[in-house]
Write a structure and sequence with these properties.
Helix content: 10-25%
Number of domains: 1
Strand content: 35-45%
Structural class: alpha+beta
Largest sheet: 4 strands, antiparallel
Strand order of the largest sheet: 1-4-5-6
Number of strands: 8
Shape: globular
Number of helices: 1
Distance between the termini: 43 Å
Length: about 110
């Protein structure tokens, strides 16, 4: 009787451990952005940036080398196939660039 209750408990524990390791936080993304852009509602100058996820609630932190900081809400998605690499996607309207998407490798 104990074996029958112990096995499902171990199976759930192993599954939870596997899921936790599969969802490790991605390290910060380092990017050299050669043009001024807007992230959320914040104007950012061209330069070096570190982009990182603050928590599992969907907030990205974008920090510039000169001290600029933008906090941007995000929606996590999971692609059907592995992303070929980390990339930032911008939309251009007139002479302004807007950060549109952040894709991470994996």
């Amino acid at each position: 009787m104990k074996k029958e209750t112990l096995f499902p408990l171990l199976a759930v524990l192993l599954l939870a451990t596997g899921l936790a390791s599969a969802q490790k936080k991605q390290g910060p993304i380092k990017a050299n952005i050669p043009f001024d852009f807007v992230a959320g509602n914040t104007s950012m100058p061209a330069g070096e940036y570190r982009i990182s996820q603050l928590s599992n609630v969907g907030v990205l932190s974008i920090k510039g080398e000169s001290g600029e900081i933008a906090l941007v809400g995000s929606n996590s998605v999971q692609a059907n196939a592995m992303s070929p690499g980390t990339r930032l996607i911008f939309h251009r309207y007139g002479d302004q660039y807007f950060l549109y998407q952040v894709w991470t490798e994996g």
